[in-house]
């Protein structure tokens, strides 16, 4: 297999899917050598079967707003690969959602889920519906309409959706309710559910906490302590806020948060009172980070991302894809940033990744660093199937162990002769090998 030949062909077949092609290119270039050590992979054309999703379900979602106006949105579910377990992956509601973005996310999810050591295949879904500015009732009607189309294609042993951008506990609750009504079944088809109806403790916190646990593992390879370190975070949603919470608990300084309108700079680091305010602002009032800046008198940069505005020791992008470009990466490195741990999926462009690797800083790609979310989703599935719920401490301990294990797998496959750990290579190869072996064993499907 020559990665460039496969990519050439995929570019010809899917010319309008830049994010998907970007994600595939990153994986193929890092697994190429290992792949070629197994000639049978090529005989079974494993690579094309792994890059192209098993199936894509797309549908129209019609819903009625509070004024009685009828709207339509597109809905999708990309079931990428179920070689090692039922399809599993979040649902994204955001105006930017299209098939290229969902295909990249489902592709990444397949390798990420493989890394978690749990039995989960990869999928992703969503809609170009934006919950921003919508009333509770409008969000509910949309979620119900979305599930009325999707319910036939999901189930506890087939495909288990969860949250992502624009889909939190509220939306999962509405979707689960509609699913239950349509199927007349009560089961663990969604994860990220409320605690009262099958949700797991620590699931909301899991992606952010998991990312910090992974960061600690990376820092321990260089004997660096987290206390007092200045951390720039982007985003102010689920992943960003729980990342900040864990960092504060460990004595680090969170010097920024952002949303799609701009960035707030907190030079001495957020206090836990301020973080509580952000939680409430975002989750209850659905407000903007500019309102937080105004309330507490901090500098606010409209329309800007955190990376070039101030110096930091650590960057934890937790908003969206391609939010750190080459120039941002150079600014971070020049400012003394020694670690980047990705809460978001594919937040760094290929040029930015190259900069991080060339500078030999600690760099954890999202598929390793943010795998804590889906890991605890897997633990939620396990609890649902046993009709049990584990304690907070038990789930947190399992999450820590999983993140440790993912780190070890990255080291196993990504450590180079000079001792530098290339986490991109490590995560891609480790994630790939398990799925590849399972696909080979199951024949051409
Ligand atoms: P949320 O919807 O809770 O928060 C998203 C945050 O990112 C918001 O602050 C949002 O700002 C900002 N944001 C979204 N799109 C853009 C954009 N185009 N430009 C700038 N800012 C943007 O989502 P999550 O926290 O759940 O997800 C964040 C990232 O983490 C995503 O990449 C997601 O795929 C990834 N992830 C999430 C997991 C989870 O468990 N939730 C698991 C693994 C990865 P605004 O409010 O203005 O839109």
Relevant terms:
445 residues; 12 strands; five-stranded mixed sheet
Summarize the structure.
By secondary structure, the chain is α/β, with parallel strands linked by helices. The chain contains 17 helices and 12 strands. The chain has a 7-stranded mixed beta sheet with strand order 9-8-7-6-10-11-12, sandwiched between helices. Strands 1-2-4-3-5 form a 5-stranded mixed beta sheet, sandwiched between helices.
Tell me about this structure.
- With 445 residues, the protein is α/β, with parallel strands linked by helices.
- 49% of the residues lie in helices and 15% in strands.
- It contains 17 helices and twelve strands.
- The strands form two sheets. A seven-stranded mixed sheet has the order 9-8-7-6-10-11-12, with helices on both faces.
- Helix 2 crosses helix 17 and helix 16 (392-414) packs across helix 17 (423-441).
- The longest helix has 23 residues, at 392-414.
- The mean pLDDT is 97.
- Bound molecules: NADPH dihydro-nicotinamide-adenine-dinucleotide phosphate (NDP).
- Residues 94, 96, 163-166, 168, 207, 235-240, 259-261, 318-320, 343-345, 370, 373 line the site of NADPH dihydro-nicotinamide-adenine-dinucleotide phosphate.
């Amino acid at each position: 297999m020559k990665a460039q030949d496969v990519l050439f062909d995929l570019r010809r077949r899917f010319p309008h899917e830049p994010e998907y092609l970007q994600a595939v290119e990153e994986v193929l270039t890092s697994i190429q050598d290992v792949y070629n050590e197994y000639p049978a992979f090529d005989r079974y054309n494993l690579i094309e079967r792994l890059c192209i999703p098993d199936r894509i379900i797309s549908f129209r979602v019609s819903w009625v707003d509070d004024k009685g106006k009828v709207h339509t949105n597109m809905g999708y579910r990309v079931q990428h690969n179920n070689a090692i377990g039922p399809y599993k992956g979040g649902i994204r509601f955001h105006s930017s959602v299209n098939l290229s973005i969902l295909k990249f996310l489902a592709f990444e999810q397949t390798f990420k889920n493989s890394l978690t050591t749990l039995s989960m295949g990869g999928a992703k879904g969503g809609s170009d519906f934006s919950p921003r500015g919508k009333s509770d009732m409008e969000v509910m009607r949309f979620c119900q309409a979305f599930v009325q189309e999707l319910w036939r294609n999901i189930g506890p042993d087939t495909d288990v959706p969860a949250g992502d951008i624009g889909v939190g506990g509220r939306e999962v609750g509405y979707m689960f309710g509609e699913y239950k009504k349509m199927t007349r079944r009560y089961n663990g088809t969604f994860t990220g559910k409320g605690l009262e109806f099958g949700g797991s403790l620590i699931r909301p916190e899991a992606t952010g906490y998991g990312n910090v646990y992974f960061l600690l593992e990376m820092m321990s390879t260089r004997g660096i302590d987290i206390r007092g370190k200045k951390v720039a975070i982007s985003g102010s949603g689920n992943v960003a806020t729980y990342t900040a919470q864990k960092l504060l608990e460990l004595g680090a300084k969170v010097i920024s948060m952002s949303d799609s309108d701009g960035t707030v700079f907190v030079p001495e680091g957020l206090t836990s009172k301020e973080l509580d305010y952000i939680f409430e602002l975002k989750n209850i009032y659905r407000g903007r980070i500019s309102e937080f800046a105004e309330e507490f008198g901090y500098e606010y940069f409209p329309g800007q991302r955190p990376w070039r505005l101030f110096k930091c020791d650590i960057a934890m992008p937790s908003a969206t894809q391609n939010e750190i470009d080459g120039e941002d990466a150079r600014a971070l490195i020049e400012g003394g940033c020694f670690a980047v741990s990705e809460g978001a999926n594919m937040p760094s462009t290929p040029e930015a990744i190259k900069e991080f690797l060339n500078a030999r800083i600690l760099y954890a790609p999202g598929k390793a660093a943010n795998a804590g979310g889906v890991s605890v989703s897997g633990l939620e599935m396990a609890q649902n199937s046993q009709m049990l719920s584990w304690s907070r401490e038990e789930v947190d301990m399992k999450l820590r162990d999983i993140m440790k294990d993912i780190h070890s797998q990255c080291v196993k496959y990504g450590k180079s002769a000079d001792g530098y750990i290339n986490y991109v290579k490590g995560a891609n190869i480790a994630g790939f090998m398990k799925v590849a072996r399972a696909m080979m064993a199951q024949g051409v499907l």
